[in-house]
Design a protein that fits this description.
With about 400 residues, the protein is mainly α. The radius of gyration is 21 Å and the shape is globular.
């Protein structure tokens, strides 16, 4: 008999994550608009994005060993309390006109660091609250909730234009405070898993933990292949982020609205896919083949869909959405159920760090190449090479290691 998914702890962390994601998506987008409006400088906007992204390179892998030694639960709610304090202070500074870009830049870097560490702590703690046999269902919920934050962006735009940034930051502070209170009520399951250290913890132990994490990932050939493939795919995704919106703006009048129109179909696809994965269990023996088919299909569709009529782009975006959440569900439920709890912080830290580096590399390279070759052709090259070919070589070429990881009922 399958265990119950909606336990008190799983329900609590789900509600807490919903509250914090809603507030963060609204405030994050409004902050971007504020920088553009207040500074009227594309350069300063780029600096703002860079300062938020920069900690995502180092913070995950640095914090990974610590998350395997100290309480992830305590880390999660402490960081949410910190975020609540930072947002209310920033709201007050803006409201009383003490704002300057230097302060905003410093706060952005701090928020980026907090979010990077929180991501590792949350992803390493969340699986501990999932009952046996419910990983696929749980991550279908997680993936759907992440997708739903897209619908917060129009609300953020309306609220920002009506009320300005300060009230939105204050509301976000309340959201984080609420999430933190929720999280304090989660059971201390980590003490049962005995991941806490005994005695002192210093640099020598930290470095030993880091080396053990590297050895573990190197010894797990299936996990290593999945990590390398998703790093390559992040390069392609970074190119898509840089190219797609500018291409729409250059190809159509009011192209940004058509971009939003096409993107919405992707969100609908991801949401529908999440519901399907919650209701339907994929056959365990076919998960590897399904995953490889999904990886290659996404690469091919995204390589060529910008060459098609608008309605075909919308259909392509919808298919990418469904396949994307399928890819996420198979990968994350397989890896998080396989990695031991005492190694999750180091694995997730390395995974997030490599994916961030891949995305930044893809953004940089595609930005440079698009100056010399057409944008659609640039995207085609990145998708076919870093996504499609990488899937064939890295995932398909390591079937004997990846298939046992994927082909399980979890």
């Amino acid at each position: 008999m399958q265990s119950k998914l909606w336990t008190k702890d799983f329900t609590t962390i789900t509600l807490g994550s919903v509250v914090s994601m809603m507030g963060n998506s609204i405030a994050g987008f409004a902050m971007s608009l504020f920088v553009l409006d207040y500074m009227e400088s594309t350069l300063l906007y780029a600096i703002y994005i860079f300062l938020y992204t920069l900690p995502q390179i180092a913070a995950p892998i640095i914090s990974g060993p610590l998350m395997d030694r100290f309480s992830r639960r305590r880390t999660i709610y402490t960081l949410d309390f910190c975020s609540a304090s930072i947002y209310i202070i920033l709201a007050a500074l803006i409201f009383f006109d003490f704002f300057n870009f230097g302060i905003f830049a410093a706060v952005t870097f701090i928020i980026g660091t907090i979010n990077s560490v929180y991501m590792v702590a949350f992803e390493s703690f969340y699986p501990m609250l999932i009952s046996e046999g419910n990983y696929s269902k749980a991550y279908s919920i997680s993936g759907t909730l992440q997708t739903m934050t897209f619908f917060m962006l129009p609300l953020a735009t309306i609220a920002y234009n009506a009320f300005g940034l300060a009230p939105l930051l204050a509301v976000n502070s309340v959201f984080f405070l609420t999430a933190a209170v929720f999280e304090t009520r989660i059971s201390d399951v980590e003490s049962v898993q005995k991941i806490h250290p005994e005695g002192s913890y210093g640099a020598k132990t930290y470095l030993s933990d880091m080396k053990n994490g590297i050895r573990y990932l190197a010894s797990e050939k299936g996990l290593l292949a999945v990590t390398l493939y998703f790093t390559a795919m992040s390069i392609a995704s970074g190119a898509s982020q840089v190219i797609t919106l500018p291409w729409f703006k250059s190809a159509f009048d009011n192209g940004e609205y058509l971009y939003m129109f096409v993107s919405i179909f992707g969100v609908i696809g991801r949401s529908l896919g999440g519901v399907i994965h919650y209701k339907v269990q994929l056959p365990a023996k076919k998960k590897f083949n399904i995953a490889l088919f999904v990886y290659i299909s996404i690469a091919v569709i995204e390589a060529f869909y910008l060459y098609t009529p608008l309605y075909s782009m919308a259909i392509g975006s919808f298919i990418i959405g469904i396949f994307g959440v399928t890819s996420y569900n198979i990968r994350v439920s397989a890896t998080q159920s396989h990695v031991p709890h005492e190694m999750k912080g180091r694995f997730n830290g390395a995974f997030f760090m490599l994916n961030t580096v891949g995305a930044l590399l893809g953004e940089l390279l595609s930005g440079v190449l698009s100056e010399f070759i057409p944008m659609r052709a640039t995207l085609t090259v990145f998708m076919l090479f870093f996504n499609g070919l990488a899937a064939l070589l890295i995932i398909g070429g390591n079937k004997k290691h990846v298939a046992p990881l994927y082909n399980r009922n979890v």
